[in-house]
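User: Hey, quick favor. My workstation is busy. Could you predict this chain's structure for me?
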Amino acid sequence: MDSKLLARIGAVAFVAVAITATVIELTRKEERPEAAMPRPAQTGAADPLRDELFRCQSLGEAGPRDPACLRAWAESRRRFLTPGTTGLQTGSGLPGSSTESHSRGAAPGGE
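Assistant: No problem, here it is.
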């Protein structure tokens, strides 16, 4: 065989494999991302802090002036920044004193 003919056969085989791989990839159905990701375990009791944060979100611009929202944001920051903290600090789900919210800043930063 001639080397030119061998090179042509190799090129045709390469193009055929590339086209086959492309067709297979295009016909593959995509998995839904939510089915691939595990869902977090839901607890029986609702989190009062989460409910309070949703309420503060619905207040809009009045949220940063509401003392309950300031306490909720302080507790949220404390939970986020303290590693290994999953439980509530007090029975109500919000910190007992509002001094933490006033010492660290009243409103969440520029969001």
